[in-house]
Amino acid sequence: MNPEVSTLDVFILDKAYKIASPLAEQDNLRRAAQYLDRKMREIRGSGKVLGLERIAVIAALNIAHELLSLRQQTSGEAVSPADIALLLQRMEAGLAETSETEIR
After folding, report:
1. How far apart are the first and last CA of the chain?
2. What count of other Cβ atoms lies within 10 Å of the Cβ of residue 40?
3. Which residues of 41-72 are buried (b: 16+ CB within 10 A; e: fewer)?
């Protein structure tokens, strides 16, 4: 493994994940995982969404919406359909990877 890259343990909904990350990005990644954990706990706590995968998708959509809204506010640009399509593709790929990992 590259000496500039290290494995970081993060916990999301009490489940541990090992993530390879550049050393310089580990603090940001840790904060991102904590933010995701908090959002997923809020969704789970509402009782309206059942199942870890569905909670993750709703959390991802909420976070993506926050990000895109902030981008729009700071740049004055509208979010393009291409941006949304790309984001959905990334989310679907991530969910597919997660499903494959859980099956193994």
Report:
1. 23
2. 21
3. eebbeeeebeeeeebbbbbbeeebeeebeeee
pLDDT per residue over 75-90, tens digit each?
766 667 777 777 777 7
Alpha carbon distance 68, 78 (integer Å): 9
- Is the distance from CB of 6 to CB of 21 less than 8 angstroms? yes
Where does residue 30 rank: exposed (0-12), middle (13-18), buried (19+ CB within 10 A)? Answer: middle
- What's the pLDDT band for 96 if we cut at 50, 70, 90? low
DSSP code of residue 15: E
**Amino acid in the structure at residue 24:** A
**Residues 21-50: pLDDT tens digits?**
999 999 999 999 999 999 999 999 999 999
Query: Which CB contacts under 8 angstroms, 24+ apart, belong to 30-38?
Result: 34/10, 35/63, 36/12, 36/63, 37/11, 37/12, 37/13
